[in-house]
């Protein structure tokens, strides 16, 4: 066989992970429905998994190449393929052994365009799985997140507190209004249903809970409860237990960006350095971003 033929058959990506559970936690965080499709995008910089719903809610999981103990990328451009998110997560769980470092090899594509998974941490047996892929049916929604002004409209709150607040605001078919005001620096989440329920986060009153705040004017937007809840409802307890901060930013037109961080440190080694804000060094963190469109485009502030 000629060398050119060998190169033509070389996979687009071969990579190895040493903490499968961290990736399971990250993907579980964006699985808000039982049957859900995802688009996987490969690049020399890492892997991005995208899930979305009717152009109102989109989530992205960023797995940077530094998360992998081996990352060999040979594709031209950025290959994209669709998978069943539930099936992919369930397959990954098979390779995850709690409390133990697991080496998982991921290869794409296989002979029939499958995503190939293989365990490498045992000399006695080899666990192997194939995940069927497909051509994505739709093009991912272009969220075009832009700042709402020269000063970011954002706040960082403990993930556990954010999840609890959103869970408490549940009203069937309702909306949640998120308001920021600079003086005094505070965030208000307000739900309407059979009555009104309001939760306030005051920056000065509890800096351990609301760990960062940036706002130069009063602003308010409403979001469908079911979409807002999806940004926190499936975060695993292990991630909540880390007590890491979740950052929420309101962009132009009221677009809401919710960011979470998930540790992908090896179970057998101590966690990497964590700074005073609760953020680990980038090489061992999976980044998760949700984008939620507002119900009403206008707000009480000025986005110009």
UniProtKB/TrEMBL annotation:
Keyword Nucleus: yes
Cell location: Nucleus
GO biological process: DNA damage checkpoint signaling; DNA repair
Pfam families linked to this entry: Rad1 (PF02144)
CDD domains in the cross-refs: PCNA (cd00577)
Keyword terms, alphabetized: DNA damage, DNA repair, Nucleus
Domain of life according to the entry: Eukaryota
GO cellular component: checkpoint clamp complex
Protein family (similarity comment): Belongs to the rad1 family.
Entry protein name: Cell cycle checkpoint RAD1
Source organism: Olea europaea subsp. europaea
């Amino acid at each position: 066989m000629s060398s050119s033929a060998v190169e033509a058959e070389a996979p687009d990506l071969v990579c190895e992970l040493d903490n499968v559970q961290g990736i399971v936690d990250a993907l579980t965080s964006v699985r808000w429905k039982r049957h859900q499709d995802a688009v996987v995008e490969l690049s020399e910089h890492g892997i991005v998994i995208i899930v979305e719903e009717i152009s109102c809610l989109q989530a992205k999981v960023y797995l940077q190449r530094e998360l992998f103990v081996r990352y060999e990328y040979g594709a031209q451009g950025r290959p994209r393929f669709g998978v069943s998110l539930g099936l992919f997560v369930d397959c990954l769980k098979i390779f995850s052994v709690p409390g133990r470092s697991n080496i998982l090899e991921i290869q794409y594509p296989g002979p029939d365009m499958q995503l190939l998974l293989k365990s490498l941490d045992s000399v006695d047996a080899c666990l192997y799985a194939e995940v069927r892929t497909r051509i994505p049916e739709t093009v991912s929604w272009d969220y075009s997140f832009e700042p709402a002004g020269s000063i970011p409209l954002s706040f960082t709150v403990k993930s556990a507190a954010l999840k609890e607040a959103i869970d408490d605001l549940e009203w069937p078919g309702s909306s949640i209004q998120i308001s920021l005001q600079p003086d005094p620096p505070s965030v208000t989440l307000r739900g309407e249903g059979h009555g009104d329920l309001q939760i306030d986060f005051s920056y000065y009153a509890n800096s351990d809970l609301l760990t960062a705040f940036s706002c130069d004017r009063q602003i308010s937007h409403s979001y469908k409860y079911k979409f807002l809840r999806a940004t926190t409802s499936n975060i695993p307890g292990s991630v909540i237990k880390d007590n890491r901060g979740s950052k929420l930013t309101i962009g132009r037109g009221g677009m809401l960006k919710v960011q979470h961080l998930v540790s992908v440190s090896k179970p057998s080694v101590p966690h990497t350095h964590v700074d005073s804000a609760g953020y680990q060094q980038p090489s061992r963190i999976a980044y998760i971003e949700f984008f939620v469109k507002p119900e009403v485009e206008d707000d009480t502030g000025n986005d110009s």
